Amino acid sequence: MKKIVSFLLIINFILPVYPDTIQGGVSERGLLKQNRIVDKATGNGISGATVSIPKENYSTKTNKDGYFELDTQINGTSIMSVKKDRYKPFSMTVNEKTFDKPIEVSIEKSNAHDISIDSDMYHLGDGSYSDNSANAGEFHSSATGPFYTKKFNLRNINLKTPVYLVIGSIIGIDTLMARTMGQNRSPNAYASPPEVYFNGNKIAEIQINGDGQKIKLPANLIHRNGQNEVTIKTGRNLMQTSYVDYDDIEFMNIMIEN
Asked: pTM score, two decimals?
């Protein structure tokens, strides 16, 4: 009998600027004879889905029944992504123990209102961080600076239903909350949280590392059928006052769900 285990991120780990901003996300994993990607609605295997771990420069595809083999070694915390046409981009945080037993991951079909803004991985910060920093040994690429910004068009958006900005996965956050939860080993230093802006307005702070971080967009900020902009700014080391020391983080998969 197949067992499915669901992991939910707790709402309070993203601190909203707007009272109705919420956060959540589900990844489903199960015990099988082989790793598998399935359709969330039907449970059927998905063929030809691309499974990749950017840090390891590894990519593979599922077979006709949705099964795949992970022929690479994972050292420490990494981000795994799953992509398939007509499905929402999916990512989850994995480590060397994740695949001790085969897992099942369910992905969801996108609808006409969902928009994938960016499915690449990005590294924000200044490239200077302690070995005790959260996920310091797992960063995939060089830092591109303290912030990320992307412009995109929203067409056919339905403002009568909630609109969410979703960050698929994020690692490297060194806030006090992240330290309290054991996500880094720094005994003294901690950083301010990454900030999320939409069309120039701050809408959230991200306090911990994790998957499926979901932020409700205030309807009055959305430019329907026009150009919109999302910006993510990394935090700063609050214990360093002689110069600006940016917190190094990596994230992957930004999309709009409606």
From this structure: 0.81
